[in-house]
Design a protein that fits this description.
The chain is 77% helix and 0% strand. The two termini are 23 Å apart. With 409 residues, it is an all-alpha fold.
Length: 409
């Protein structure tokens, strides 16, 4: 697609990466102060004491948010390609900074789910940050940049989970929800004043036929659609057990210090994600995805099964760390493949679709996990997640091989 005659500004991709990284660190810290602790919030604040009841409430909370995000994110991605990716990131930061704290004022589960739907519809900081990073970073550095962004994501998660558990335990949930909003607003201000974009609006077609106004799927290659399918499958397995970690923590360690124990164990998993993003981001610029994916999937599935058998919090934390180290670096690898497979003018759109694929997979995983927890118990859902992850080897490896053959033609 040809651009207008306006020349793009010269910007520093390294400077941009630093401030996008910081913004994502704060945003993920804000959301991680709140979201991982919702099963405990349901018990403490909304009076849901029964394990099966909380499992379904947790499943609904995650599913409603993911459904809203999944519906809206392709639209935000397409608007980013038309009007700029920075404005989309600003929209996500500032609106989320208002709507996330609003959830604390919802007096019952129905209103909480409605507010969760609204908040998620206007969120999407990760995909917006990835798209902005992808279009302002040279192709030869995209594996490093996207891997570094993944490290920011996990670093923020670790910071938020540690502080969120302590703050919720000692100061209550109002404090964590308000700080969540403040962190998002701060990320928006950092982006507004310190991140630049060399966006040039595409030329509008002079003649719009009626058929051109019809809603149609983006003109991605078959290889890109296959990779989007892979991005759906990975979180389906990984998110199957994720919302229910506080229930397993309570089962093993008791309810008295549930917030604190959940905080440091989820922080351990985030540390695995940090190291994974750095290692896999570096390796993805040197090795083929197939070389990295097979052992990572095998290790992730094995340690997921170890979680199900854990008989102490330290064993659970070690298994959780290894799961996220093994699986956490796979998404940046596939995102770099996707970024290299599309025209730069479509990167906002494809990252929007990629985010929806991941969230739709997570939504399916949360539904499966809710049913498994209700009927198989809390250990059963973690065992099921490991089995699903191992089974993905049979699907994802052939898919990568097919995409590599297509790209070589």
């Amino acid at each position: 697609m040809k651009n207008s005659g306006k020349l793009p500004r010269n910007i520093s991709w390294r400077r941009n990466l630093v401030f996008i990284w910081l913004g994502q660190l704060l945003a993920m810290a804000g959301s991680s102060m709140v979201i991982p602790f919702m099963p405990i919030y349901f018990r403490v604040e909304l009076g849901l004491a029964d394990e099966a009841q909380r499992a379904w409430a947790t499943s609904l909370f995650y599913t409603v948010g993911m459904l809203s995000f999944c519906i809206s994110n392709p639209l935000w991605g397409a608007l980013g390609d038309r009007f700029g990716r920075k404005i989309m990131l600003l929209r996500a930061y500032f609106v989320t900074g208002i709507t996330f704290p609003a959830m604390i004022f919802m007096p019952n589960m129905t209103l909480l789910l409605i507010m969760r739907f609204v908040a998620s519809m206007f969120s999407g900081t990760v995909s917006a940050a990835q798209a902005l990073t992808a279009v302002t970073t040279p192709d030869q550095h995209q594996g490093f940049a996207l891997g570094s962004l993944s490290a920011a994501f996990w670093s923020g998660n670790m910071l938020g989970m540690l502080s969120g558990g302590l703050l919720a335990h000692y100061f209550g949930y109002m404090t964590t929800f308000m700080l969540c909003g403040a962190f998002f607003i701060t990320s928006g201000l950092l982006t507004l004043f310190f991140v630049e974009e060399n966006f040039v609006p595409p030329l509008k077609l002079k003649n719009h036929s009626k058929s051109g106004r019809k809603i149609a799927l983006p003109a991605f290659s078959t290889g890109v659609w296959i990779l989007l399918g892979v991005l759906f499958l990975l979180p389906l397995a990984r998110r199957c057990d994720e919302p229910f970690l506080p229930l397993l923590v309570e089962f093993i360690g008791g309810m008295e210090r549930a917030e604190i124990n959940t905080g440091w164990i989820t922080a351990a998993s985030a540390l695995g994600g940090i190291m994974s993003g750095i290692v896999f981001g570096h390796l993805s610029d040197k090795y083929k995805p197939l070389t990295l994916a097979a052992p990572a999937l095998l290790a992730a599935g094995g340690f997921m099964l170890m979680q199900a058998a854990a008989n102490s919090l330290w064993m659970l934390a070690l298994a959780r760390f290894m799961v996220f180290f093994a699986a956490g670096g796979l998404e940046p690898v596939f995102l770099a493949m996707i970024s290299h497979s599309v025209n730069p003018d479509l990167r906002g759109t494809v990252f929007g679709w990629g985010a929806s694929a991941r969230v739709f997979g997570g939504m399916a995983g949360a539904l499966v996990g809710g049913a498994a927890t209700a009927y198989l118990g809390v250990r059963g859902v973690f065992a099921l997640a490991g089995i699903i992850m191992l089974s993905l080897i049979l699907l994802i490896i052939p898919a990568i091989k097919k995409v590599e053959r297509m790209n070589c033609k």
